[in-house]
Amino acid sequence: MTSQRASFRTIRDELSRRIAERIWLPGTLIPGEEALAEEFGAARATVNRALQELARAGILERKRRAGTRVALHPVREARFVIPRIRQEIEGRGSEYQYRLLSAEETDAPEVICARLSLLSKSGMLHVRCLHLADRVPYQYEDRWINLNTVPDARRADFKSMGPNEWLVGHAPFSNAEFTFMAGSASADEASLLQVREGDPVFIGERITWMKGQPITLAHLVHPSSHRMVTHL
Amino acid sequence: MTSQRASFRTIRDELSRRIAERIWLPGTLIPGEEALAEEFGAARATVNRALQELARAGILERKRRAGTRVALHPVREARFVIPRIRQEIEGRGSEYQYRLLSAEETDAPEVICARLSLLSKSGMLHVRCLHLADRVPYQYEDRWINLNTVPDARRADFKSMGPNEWLVGHAPFSNAEFTFMAGSASADEASLLQVREGDPVFIGERITWMKGQPITLAHLVHPSSHRMVTHL
DNA sequence: GAGTGGTCTAGACCACGGA
DNA sequence: CCGTGGTCTAGACCACTCT
Hints:
2 copies of one chain form a homodimer.
Chain A: H1 8-20, E1 29-30, H2 33-40, H3 44-56, E2 60-63, E3 67-70, E4 77-81, H4 85-90, E5 96-106, H5 110-116, E6 124-133, E7 136-146, H6 163-170, E8 175-184, H7 187-193, E9 200-210, E10 213-223, E11 228-231
Helix pairs in contact in A: 1-3, 2-3
The first copy, chain A, binds a DNA duplex (19 and 19 nucleotides) through residues 6-8, 32-34, 42-46, 48-49, 51-52, 62-68.
């Protein structure tokens, strides 16, 4: 018996409760949309929306003809926000500062070409900069921008605005890959981040594409005090 | 002119295209649902679904009365799968091995209590184990389980099954926090992971709750060769 | 108050894929 | 084949919020 008026939210939460409280065990075939619609006194479309949300969250598995089952091996996903460095820092109430270290058009080394699946190593813009929070080094950014895809970047002024900030405003991406890892600070990175050489660093790498054309590869290095936190 | 038959997918993609190709610039107020429905020859509900998906993805911002705008500061999110270690390793075609190092009921140290907001330090199960891929250390797991929330864990046998595997089957969580960071291998961790003491390690920490009750805190340490990858 | 998005309904047809 | 989920429609009412 559910006293609440029908709504995809209440239905979703009630079904979610039945799964969490193990009334429906993993692997159980749950009633069809029609049956649930009748039970909750709702339209099938409403039940459908509730079920789709749970399926998207990974706690239900739906197949035509076979029906809907409680996921046996819930492949749960979490989300993390793709931070824009200025917002990230200012959002915590810290003062954001930016320092351009270098920006030059040059040939890309082998590693970079390979990482971006580039045929030609020319027409690349190499930008290095530092982001600070409350005057303390927060992130060192080493970025390659593909001028063949984003020719406008040649005229961009990275003295006052970080390349990420410029890119979100001028070159939207359709596709991205994020990699996170741990590494050791090189001599350069150490002096910029004010840590000792060889100290652990948290590294994020992003590659973005627009319709299959690589836009940019960003190598983002944080001191080991950095935390990347997300909730589910 | 859109030649495709109306469907929330085609509408979504077409709107997405207009934004990506800067036909609608960030901040633009786009036509209302009714108008779009007419343009695409679809019902308003169909347009609504397309718009909702784009809003959820962060590229549109919708407000009642104010209409729908192209997001100025697209707060984009990416998803990552919460891996179950066995699947993660076997999914790459590697052989999974598991080794229990210790499991004992003991008082939790201050740090752990604080992290879990626990009032009492008793009734905690401390489990340490190692996960290997192709006989190479892959992850060292140091976990605290709250027996007050999950009393059944006392009778669990962690000799053949990792605590994560046991928990997903016996104690679903309603809420979780994930933290990722870089650190240095302690002497213990170094010998277990077969790296040198002080070498960088990639650390993941998860805390899970069931209805506000803390279930477990897992501290997961990977050698620095580890990569966490996700796409958008 | 009024305009916009948010949700629900009843009915319909379609597509997939298991039996 | 045919039952199940996937999607669409036309219409309706509601909720929020800007003016």
